[in-house]
Amino acid sequence: MKSKAEERYLADGLDELERTLHHLCYSANKSATIRQNLSDATEDELGQIEAFTSRFARVVDLISKRVLRSLDRFEFYDAGTLLDVANRAEKRGLIHTVDWLRELKDMRNQIAHDYAGDRLPEILAYCREELPRLLEVCQRIQIYARTLLGNGSPHTELQGLQ
Q1: Residue 94 has pLDDT above 90, yes or no
Q2: pLDDT at position 2, please?
Q3: Which residues does 142 contact at the CB level (< 8 Å), separation at least 6?
Q4: What angle do CA 132, 127, 36 make, to 5 degrees?
């Protein structure tokens, strides 16, 4: 039998993911018309891109460090390394591959450590390209977890993003 603490931790993680995805989708839409070549971008445009890529990184952190781990905890798996968590998520059909999640985590680190924005065009291209897959994975995770909790599907509307 699941404890209330495990249920609450998973439910809280899902609620936080909902809110974080809302902010990510907002930033993705707001920055969608900004050209990939950022050499003549305004400070406002750079700020929008920074918000989008930072929010992308936050979602990656949240799913890998909190939501997938709380799913493991809820299903009585021992805490393990990120690789253990990723392997179980792949077996559940929640993520595309372990290597894909590792790639996302590597990009998250690049986003966090690109202090001067020297790699911003490359980071932007990656985030734009991977956004649909990230949103799809988040939706899969939400559906799986909410089914475990017995309260249906996710609330966030993820359509309308390319």
Answers
A1: yes
A2: 63
A3: 14, 17, 18, 153, 154, 156
A4: 115
The CATH superfamily holding the domain 4-33+45-149 is bsu32300-like (1.20.120.580)
Where do the domains of the chain lie? Answer: 4-33+45-149
Structure tokens that stand for 17 in this block: 């993911």
How much is the pTM?
Answer: 0.88
Does the pLDDT value for residue 154 go beyond 60? no
Contacts (Cβ under 8 Å, ≥6 apart) of 103: none
Q: Output DSSP code: residue 55.
A: H
Integer angstrom CA distances of residue 137 from 26, 80, 106, 150: 18, 21, 17, 20
Q: Helix or strand or coil: residue 32?
A: coil
Instruction: Give the pLDDT of residue 162.
Output: 38
